[in-house]
Amino acid sequence: MSVPVHSLGLSQIIGYGLLFYSFAALKSHISVYSGISESAVLLILSAILIFQSFMMPLVGALADRKGALWVMRNGFFLGGVGFSCLSFLSIGHDLNVLWMAGSFILIGVGTAMCTYEMAFCAAVQLNEKKSRQNISYITFYGAIASSLTWLLIYPILDRFGYSITCIFCAGLLFACAILINIQKNRFRISATGNSEGDVKKFLWNKINPLQKRALLVLAISGSMEYFLFSATTLLWIAWFTSKFNDAGVGIWLASIYGPFQLVGRVIEMRFGHHIDARITGLMAAALVPISIILAQNNSLSMAALAMALFGVGHGILTVSFGFITNLYFKAEIYGRAKGLIAAPRAFCSAIGPGIGGVLFAMSESIFMGAMFAVALVGLIVFSSLLFIKPTNVIHLGD
Fold first, then answer.
1. 225 partner at 20 to 30 Å CA-CA among 149, 306, 319, 325?
2. Are the C-beta atoms of residues 323 and 128 closer than 8 Å to each other?
3. Contact 169/157 with Cβ under 8 angstroms?
C-alpha cells in the first residue's frame, strides 16, 4: 500500500513549526497580554511538555485502536482550537493566565497526537515493509520546520499583530486536520486492518523477552539523546559566545547544526537503507560525544565541524529511533510500544533546558562534562541493541 509521505511530511512542518517553534516568536506577546514574565510563560510551556510525556502511552494505544491518521487528525484540530483560544488573550481580562494555560493544554495534547511519533506510526501501519524509507522522507520535511516557521511567523507578527498571527496559525492547523482526514478516508483503515474490538493485546508480562530488552534500551538511549539535544540547543549560542567572545560568531556556529540535521537525513535516505539500522544509528550516536569534544576546541573550524557532526548525528538518530522500534514491534502494537518509549523521552526533553541552564550557570566546564557523560551513556546503551535480535519477521530479511 502506498503511503502519503508528502502529506505526512507537510504535516510535520506545520505541526512542529506551529505547535512548538512558533513560541520563540510569540512568547513575548503572550507575556505582555497574560501579565507574567517570559520566563514564567516558558515555565508553563515546560510543565505542559511534562504533562504531554505522560500522555504518550495513551496516544500510542489510541493509534493502535483507531489508526494513527485518526489520532493525527484530532491532534491538529485540538492544536487549532488552542491557537484560536490564544488569539483572545489580546482582549484583556482578569483570567488571562488561566486562559493561556488552558490554551497551552490544548496545544500540548494536540502536539502529542500529531507530531513525529504518530507520523511514524502511520508510515508503519500503511506499509510496514517500507517503513524505514517512508520515515526518512517524513523526517526530511520536519528538518526544515523551524526555519520555515520563523521566516513565516515573524513578518506576519510584525505586520498584522499577535491576534491575527494566532488565527493564521489556527487556520493552518485546521487545514492540516482536513488534509489528514482526506488521507484517512482514502486509506480507510483502523491500525493495520483490525476492527476496533480486535486489537492485539500488549501486556508487559506477555511480550517476548527480546522485545522487553529492546523497549528498555530504546527508551533509555532515546531519553539520553533528547535530554542532551534539548539541554544544549538553547545554550550553544551562550557557549560559543563565551568561548570566542563574539555574539555574532556564537549565533553563526549554533545555527550550523540545523541544516546538517537535514544532511543527516539525506544520507540516511540515500545510503542508509543498505545497512542495518542499528549500525547506522550507532554510528550517528557516536558522532554526538565526538562533537561535544570538538566543541571545546579553541579553533573556529573545529567548532564548526563539531556543530556539523552534532546535526548529522541527531538527524540520523531521529530516523533510527522511528524505524528500529518497528524491528522489534509489528504494526499491530507499534503505537503502544512507541508510546512507552516516547514517554520518558518526552519527559527528559521537557526538563533538559532547565537542568542544562542550571549546570551552565554553575560552570561551563561542568555543563560540557555532563553533556559528554550523557552522550556516552546513551551511546553505550544504544550499542546493546546489536546483541538483541530483531523479532519482527517482516524486516528479518532486510
1. 149
2. no
3. no
* Alpha-carbon span 398 to 387, nearest angstrom: 17
- Residue that is written with C-alpha cell 492540516 in the block: 176
More confident residue, 315 or 187: 315
In the CATH hierarchy, which top-level class contains the domain 5-187? mainly alpha
For the question of whether the overall pTM of this predicted structure is more than 0.70, the answer is: yes
Same fold, 5-187 and 209-395: yes
pLDDT in tens, 283-300: 999 999 999 999 999 999
Domain residue spans in the chain? 5-187, 209-395
Q: Say if residues 344 and 53 touch (Cβ distance below 8 Å).
A: yes
Do 165 and 24 touch, CB atoms closer than 8 A?
A: no
Q: How many CA atoms lie within 13 A of 348 on its CB side?
A: 19
Is-contact 71 184, C-beta < 8 A? no
Residues 216-256 have pLDDT tens digits of: 999 999 999 999 988 887 688 889 998 998 888 888 898 88
